[in-house]
Amino acid sequence: MEGAIKFEGVSAGYQDRIVLNNISFTVNQGEFVGVAGPNGSGKSTLIKLILGLVKPLSGKIVIKGYNTSSSIKKIREKMGYLPQKSNTDPRFPVLVKEVVAMGMYSTIGMLRHPGPEHFQRVSEALRQVGMGGFEEHPFGHLSGGQQQRVLIARALVNNPDILLLDEPTTGLDHFSQTRLINLINDIRLKKNITVIMVTHHLNQIYDLAGRIIYIDEQKLTIDNPESIIGQYLGGNQYA
Ligand SMILES: Nc1ncnc2c1ncn2[C@@H]1O[C@H](COP(=O)(O)OP(=O)(O)OP(=O)(O)O)[C@@H](O)[C@H]1O
């Protein structure tokens, strides 16, 4: 079976700095894979390689059968992305429906206005994350947890096969973190989406993620949570 995401001998880095050296792995459709490792080890770089925002120095990346070096537009249509959190100015005058509609720019184009059929998709994505009815609310007036759910709706609005989440629970209280992760997992199961989620808190996903990617010192290991925690975190999932 062709994997949803396949890395073959990939090296990547910036200027004269190698971040990932000769890594290979395959993720299957519908898997929930966590991405962990120390600060600066290359977790976001891995996500950006999958998105085609960072180009490999050598090796090959194939997403749903398409090579990132030649078919990046096709691949982007299949992916939803929630970047690392940046704080939104509460006075920023943008409505929830406009934030979600931004997720469709890759398919409808930046300069075209979204039509009624697009806003139907926006409402559907908001319903999926439990934010139906919030279309006309100012984004900046929502709580942190609600804002993250709206940003997940933005990542889901194109019906992606792959959802890439870079520390989606940052800044949320413990209860909201658990709720958000359970929500992501429910959507994954319902739609058979592949979820790749960067987190500093493996305990959050220990029971849900089938496998964890651990990155350190230019190397990548992929294995079940128990084994990764045993090998790298001294057996402590809360480390
Ligand atoms: N655009 C860039 N130009 C140069 N160096 C970069 C760039 N982006 C990242 N780096 C460097 O590459 C390394 C990996 O960064 P990356 O952001 O992938 O790490 P990370 O594991 O996501 O870190 P964190 O846990 O702090 O979010 C770091 O040393 C970082 O300084």
Automatic annotation (TrEMBL):
SMART domains: AAA. Belongs to the ABC transporter superfamily. Residues 5-234 form the ABC transporter domain. It comes from the Bacteria. Keywords: ATP-binding, Nucleotide-binding, Transport. Pfam families: ABC_tran (PF00005). GO terms for molecular function: ATP binding; ATP hydrolysis activity. This is ABC transporter related.
